[in-house]
Design goal:
With 361 residues, the chain is of the alpha/beta class. Helix content is 47%, strand content 20%. The chain has 2 domains: 2-170, Rossmann fold (3-Layer(aba) Sandwich); 174-207 and 234-354, Dehydroquinate synthase-like - alpha domain (Dehydroquinate synthase-like, alpha domain, Up-down Bundle), CATH 1.20.1090.10. The structure holds nicotinamide-adenine-dinucleotide (NAD) and zinc ion (ZN).
Length: 361
């Protein structure tokens, strides 16, 4: 599919076995003189080397640059090491970064591309559900800093995205479950029928059935790209993608990131549905409707310190003028427009709703 941006359009290819054709796709969409393939050491050892071989066999000038796997590497330090290595290797403005990996890699390598010689193209080759469904589409790149996650970065849309769902077979099962939560979020905010298809097919998706995964990734990319095309720089409508994230981020931070992002957002979605139901904005029964599949894939955390989450609510990016703003559903598949796609909510009500976190469902 094609995604529109302010500066043009790019292709997102979704399917099975697409990596065999990567050299041709790169040549057609980018046509760079040299390619800097960036990957974490984990993904590099599984998928990076075969990709490198293919690029070289096709006569492309490509080198592999790696960094240690994990969120702890999404830093300015990794950015400076990678950019220094590329400078030493003599990469010029006619080069292209090829990010091969999960969301950490697509964010970090995207930021390298956004800043290298004031910006060179990036091709995103996402290898996790999260990266395919969420991180590689939308143009946000960046790194984490002491003050918080993703606070230094740039909007830098890719020139090409290739999501080959065959690679999901090697993704650990828990990572699959965590990433799929964002697909359910896309269904919850925009497409109830998609939510139901995901629910019915969740077993195959968790088992990384490549065909089922391609169908889901394609629909999620369509939905996310549709939102981003309307509001590329997060002025208003794009914040509907934050559904489940106001409370989810607070719970995730309160756990000191012991809780996976998917688990935190799943619980955040249930709680924000509860909040909407209490306010009479969200159709009754929506929390329960969401809970069925979400708790099946990520479960409820064993221990939860909801009190510790409260201070993090105030530091959320969605706080405007001291009041906390939350995206609320009208019903499954539809966001309530509220005022500018969110509702102002008192902290005391949020705390009350947080206290219901441990209740089933
Ligand atoms: N830019 C955006 O719009 C956006 C959106 C959502 C999330 N993100 C970012 O994405 C990041 C999380 O992404 P993630 O969950 O993919 O994390 P990740 O990149 O750390 O990948 C998770 C783990 O899975 C491994 N892995 C990835 N693909 C694999 C494969 N095919 N086979 C085997 N192992 C594989 C990685 O090596 C890593 O150990 C966060 O930093 C988050 O901020 C960005
Ligand atoms: Zn998220």
């Amino acid at each position: 599919m094609r995604v529109r941006t302010r500066d043009g359009e790019y292709s997102v290819l979704v399917g099975t076995g697409l990596l065999a054709d990567l050299p041709r796709a790169l040549t057609e969409s980018v046509g760079a003189r040299r390619y800097a393939v960036i990957s974490d050491d984990n993904v590099a050892s599984i998928h990076g080397h075969p990709i490198m071989e293919r690029l070289r066999e096709s006569g492309l000038d490509a080198s592999l640059f790696t960094f240690p796997a994990g969120e702890a590497s999404k830093t300015r330090k990794s950015w400076s090491i990678l950019t220094d290595e590329m400078l030493e290797a003599g990469y010029g403005r006619d080069a292209c970064v090829v990010a091969v990996g999960g969301g950490v890699t697509t964010d970090l390598a995207g930021f390298v591309a956004a800043t290298y010689l004031r910006g060179i193209p990036v091709a995103q080759i996402p290898t996790s559900y999260l990266a395919m469904i969420d991180a590689s589409v939308g143009g946000k790149t960046g790194v984490d800093v002491h003050a918080g996650k993703n606070l230094v970065g740039a909007f830098h849309p890719p020139r090409l995205v290739v999501a080959d769902t065959e690679v999901l077979r090697t993704l650990p099962r828990d990572e699959r479950a965590q990433g799929l939560v964002e697909a359910f979020k896309h269904g919850a905010i925009l497409d109830a029928a998609y939510f139901e298809r995901l629910e019915a097919g969740v077993h195959g998706l968790l088992e990384a059935d490549a065909g089922a995964a391609a169908d889901a990734v394609l629909r999620s990319v369509e939905l996310k790209a549709g939102v981003v095309s309307e509001d590329e720089f997060e002025g208003g409508y794009r914040q509907i993608l934050n559904f489940g994230h106001t409370l989810g981020h607070a719970l995730e931070a309160a756990s000191k990131y012991a809780m996976g992002h998917g688990s935190a957002v799943a619980l955040g979605m249930l709680l924000e549905a509860e909040l909407g139901e209490r306010l009479g904005v969200t159709e009754p029964g929506t929390r329960e409707r969401l809970a069925g599949p979400l708790l099946r894939i990520v479960g409820l955390p064993r221990s939860l310190d909801v009190g510790a989450a409260v201070p993090y609510l105030r530091s959320d990016k969605k706080v405007r003028a001291g009041r906390i703003r939350v995206v609320l559903l009208r019903r499954l598949g539809e966001v309530d427009p509220g005022e500018g796609w969110s509702h102002e909510v008192s902290e005391s009500l949020l705390v009350e709703v947080l206290a219901t976190a441990a209740k089933a469902p």
